[in-house]
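Posting this for the archive.
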Amino acid sequence: MTAVTHYAFSYLVCSAMGCDHITALTASTFSLLPDIDHPQSLIGRLFPGVSKYILRKYGHRSVTHSVFAILALCVLLLPVLLFSGMFYAASVFAFSSHIFIDLFNRSGVRLFSPISQKEYISFRTLELRVPVSSWQEYLVLFVIVFFAFSVSGQAFSLTRAVRSASKVLYKTYDIAVSDYKDNSGSLCVARIEYFDHLQRRMVTDTMDVLHLFASKAFLVKDDVRYIILKQDIDEIDIEATEGEVKSTKIEGTGISLLEGIPSTQFIAGSITVHNYDPDIKSSDVLKVKRYTDHTVLELNYCKPYEVRELMLLDEKVQDAIHKLQRELTTYRISELQREESAIRRKLRSLNRSGIYSHYTTATQLSSELSSIQSSIARLRLNVGSVKDVETQKKIEQLQGYSVDVSVYAVEL
């Protein structure tokens, strides 16, 4: 039989034993081991030297397909009993299932090799036996897959089996990322062992998964967000729960759209600021990308208080406009003209009350008025200067300021 048929039958056997989906997937990889005596098999191609040696010395479906091979596996896997009796039993049954189903091939199985070379076979009638890679085998495979799915209620494949096996043996971050993506939308829990830089020691904990990026994990425990770098993670295992991640789409124009987001939620998405470059620096939860006429702020599961500075953008833009307007020559002239009008009003008031009784004050005001008029005259010569034109362009650009919001408010 082919590797796919062996694996599918083993999965059916393990599922019928009561194994959970992950255990059945992982243990079923042991069903591929007996074919290490064939260089063209899946396992044989992985270990060509061992495969060719066994084939040359004992032949195909001999020592690796014998009851002695089953006993040897039972002994080798004894340490597994310390962790899981179910996995131990499933692995032995998976290995044995390969030998059992090979009894239905055209050629027999030497069950007691190397002591006896007698071949054991299921049916004496040749037509009832199943040739390898024939339409009969594919029919058998279809029936096996149907019953396997009926028993377990889960889909399975060799690819998922390899990943599940590596997940059991090597709980790596990349596998965790794949598991997280496979359960998109479900609330996932991470069982993680990592190095805590604050405590300066390895920590084992269970946390809710906010998001897994390629280089770091965003996890939550007791409403506190933890950002753990990939290189600090020793082991991590992802498990989907029946809960769901709740997210609300917030999209439109205006930074005020972010108001009212509860402090228990996280904000993920992008904010595009047009015609203004906010004085904001990148961080673990906020990435700033600056372009010629706009700035993109990528929010990676920020807490509302972490984007509080963004809520002040409208006010900051107005302050920047007013500051530039004060630099314009026309604005400075208008300011001086207001001072001129105020002095003239004071002089008229002094004139009505008797200018000679306020001679000193009137003289001082007249001097100030003359100085202001001289300043206005000089400034009028600079109206429309290069500096004024540049300043006016900056003002017009800021007056075109707008904010496009496209984020999700996420709650675990």
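The chain is about 45% helix and 20% strand. The two ends are 47 Å apart (CA to CA).
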